[in-house]
Structure formats: C-alpha cells, structure tokens
Amino acid sequence: NAGVTQTPKFRVLKTGQSMTLLCAQDMNHEYMYWYRQDPGMGLRLIHYSVGEGTTAKGEVPDGYNVSRLKKQNFLLGLESAAPSQTSVYFCASSFGPGELFFGEGSRLTVL
Amino acid sequence: AQSVTQLDSQVPVFEEAPVELRCNYSSSVSVYLFWYVQYPNQGLQLLLKYLSGSTLVESINGFEAEFNKSQTSFHLRKPSVHISDTAEYFCAVSDPNSGNTPLVFGKGTRLSVIA
Description:
The complex is a heterodimer of chains A (111) and B (115). Chain A is mainly beta and 111 residues long. Chain A has strands at 4-7, 10-13, 19-25, 31-38, 42-49, 56-57, 65-67, 73-78, 87-94, 101-102, 106-110. In chain A, strand 4 and strand 5 form a beta hairpin. The relative contact order of chain A is 0.33. Chain B has no helices and 12 strands. In chain B, the strands form 3 sheets. In chain B, strands 2, 5, 6, 10, 11 and 12 form a 6-stranded mixed sheet that branches. In chain B, strand 5 (32-38) and strand 6 (44-50) form a beta hairpin. The radius of gyration of chain B is 14 Å and the shape is globular. Classes of the chains: A mainly beta (111), B mainly beta (115). The A-B interface holds A 4, 31, 33, 40-43, 45, 48, 50, 56, 58, 90, 92, 97-105 and B 9, 32, 34, 36, 41-46, 49, 51, 90, 94, 96, 98-103, 105-108.
C-alpha cells in the first residue's frame, strides 16, 4: 500500500549541477503535481499534469522541467541547480482537481 | 483565480484548551474546501473536506470545520487540543467549475500545543 513514493528523500547539489526527482503513485490517479515548500511561503505549485503525456506550469515553474511519460510516474528535473532551489519538494496525486495524496517529501540543498 | 488566506501564521495554545484556525477564501459561486495537516518531517494528510451538503464537517480526531458562504470562511476548530495535535495546518480551495485548475493552498498555520 505504497501510495505516493518520492526518490531520493535527501540530496545535496552544487550550483550548476543537474538532477531529477522521481514521483511514483500506485493509485491509478490521472492528476499529478510537484510543489515546493519554503518557510513562511506555504506550498507553491511548480508544475502539474492532468494525464499521461500532458504537463502544465504552476505558480513557480522557472528553472524546472517535468515529464509524464507513464501515468504512474511524474519526474521533476533541475537542469542547472541554484541556491534559490534549496527547498523541500512534495509530489502529490489525485483523481481530479480535489483531494490530493502527498508523498513524504524530498529535501534538496543546493550549495 | 481563487485565493486562500490563513490569518494566523502561528497559534500557541495550552493542552486541553480550545483552538480555532482561521481560513478565508476569495468568493466564488461554488467551492470545494479542504484542511490538510502536516506533522513534523512528513507530507501533508487530508484532515477533512467540504464538497457539498452539511456545512459542518468533522474529522476522526475531533476537529471540525464549518463552511460559511456569506463570510467566505472555513475555520477549523477543536474543543480540547492534545500535544499530538502540534503540526502545521493548511487550508485549500478548488473551484469545481474551473476544469483542471489545481487546488490553491494557504500559507499554513503552525499550531503549537503547550503542556
């Protein structure tokens, strides 16, 4: 009964390095989301997907790319990491634009 | 576009005291409303939701929230808090008529229960 699984859970990068966060869900949800959480800022939507092969920009998409090649997976990429991208990243999924199920988060530090 | 305001960023309260966490949303003809809870070092979990019907909704651990359309509010209450309720609470709103628009979250309220 995994739900939403994020990997890796922790990562330290140097400025300019690239990386990919993987989100996998086993609930057959159509919708998937990537949020970042920063102190005092709440949750901010980076990108989301309403189905396999589709993606859309959220509130803070700059510096990130995403792909949804398979329904169960949603990848978040950082091509050239910056210190401003130090954050906790959460993936979520849902049947529609309503109740979300969240992963446990991925803590990224960019030095 | 919808927006959500959580009026208090931090709420300290003594154990067994009542608490209210406030949430207001921008007006809309119809809304779905949610409260999520985030315990330390964990992801968010759904606490309760209002989709339609009774304006008073309850969670399994004693929280309740009331949808007030005239005040555009969805405040979260608990008559007697426990230490284990210490967490961050997020209010969220969606417009069921807006197609694929995702949930909009408030900035969160950190509830600290003091022994």
